[in-house]
Amino acid sequence: MKRISLIFVLLITLLLTACKEEIQTNITATIEDINISYNSVSFDVNIVDPDQEITGEVVVYLYTDAGNLRTQKTLTENAETVTFSSIEPNTVFTIRVIATAGRDSIEVKRVKVTTLEETAVVIRTPEDFFAMTNNRSGRFELGQDIDFTDVEFESPFGTAARGFSGEFDGKGYTLKNITFNKITQYTAVFGYLTSGKIKNLTLENITIGTEDEPLSMSTSTRVGIVYAHSTSEASLVEDVTVKNASIVFQSSSTLKVTVGGIAGESRGSIKNVKFIDSLIHVKTTSSADVQIGGIVGLQTNTAKLKQAYTNSDIYFTALGTQPRNDSVNHVIGGVTGQLADGGALSELINEGNLHLDIKYPTRDATTKATYTLFAGGLVGKANSRILDGYFSGNLTLTHDHDQSDENIYKQFRVGGLIGFYEKNIAATRLVYLNGTMTFMLSDDVNHELSQTFGFDRFKATSNSGVYGTQHLTLNDVSIVDQDDVNEILDLTDYFNSEWVNSYLE
What is the model's pLDDT at position 459? Predict the structure, then answer.
């Protein structure tokens, strides 16, 4: 009797399962614009639910051909781009879209895809380089140096819709003689990165404007030589050298200007990079927030920068020719402009100079505004710890009072190492090395000036300091005696980094 009952239960279960598979629904889904690489697949999913049957989640699953779940993503919108990365090459996968309607889970779409074999596309010509836009998650490598002389250049990954998520191995070769004819929202050789990786590459004679012919921009922009903006902490730039490059432009934006010799804004990792014999000169004529760094303009909370060298000069000029009744924030650093809390920064060297000339855009009728400047030989503003590095260049800053500045509060925090340090853990083994700091400031500026940290909010114990001849002048008067800094007498084995020590030998 028990056996008969068990068989009966199994039959009922099978019947219910069969019925569930035959559930009628008007929910539909489409999967379009499928982009496949050797280790990722991305596509657009569109859900149509005319009768509002969906009561729960819509989930996109990725199964292996053997039926094993590989990964999944829950949709938050009816139309969404889905990317599955770090998956196996040369493998058949099934994409299944499952919607919850009432108590039922209903499959509304199924598609099979096969990832590519793990072989790189070899890039040998400018045409090959531009064609990378057709496979933004592909794997590429240079087969030789490429000269872009007289070639009209546009990054194959110049917009958010065309972000690079693949791999580019320069194999030690060079991309050279690239000239940009305009500034865009994301201006760089590789433009916009998602989880893209770029390594073993030299970029030479890259021109984004010159002193004789500066470019111009009227809205928000991010600018770098390698990339302008990355959106994923998985992005990587490693073993890359930029030399004989220039970034020279004028912005009338009221929004944002972020500029770096390697990257404008970084969320990923950058390691062992050099910005050599190059120039950054940015002029602003309005109230945009400005972040400029010799290597990176802005490092977010997920960004990591290690082993960064620059000997290039940074010029920043605030012209104030398009006045607005706004507060203004400028952050300038020889290596990194601004470092967010959680970001990592270590082993950094700046042997270039910083020249800052500030005229604020104050409207005659202004009754209240705050103007802030954070500038440092290594970092302008840091909300995270910094380890091992030195600045051996010169820093000059000039600012004249304007009659329209009557009701303005001005705050300048400038340091030979860091302008504004806002972390309760000491930044250590940072040295200002044989440089000069020269300030010409009107008396309406509230200033905190030092050869080390302009302002250290938590005054955490630090073994950072100054090596060599000290120099700090304000309006042609030395204020070295007012600068309470550690004096470093011997740099032998001072740094915990063989990489930094190698530049001192």
Answer: 84
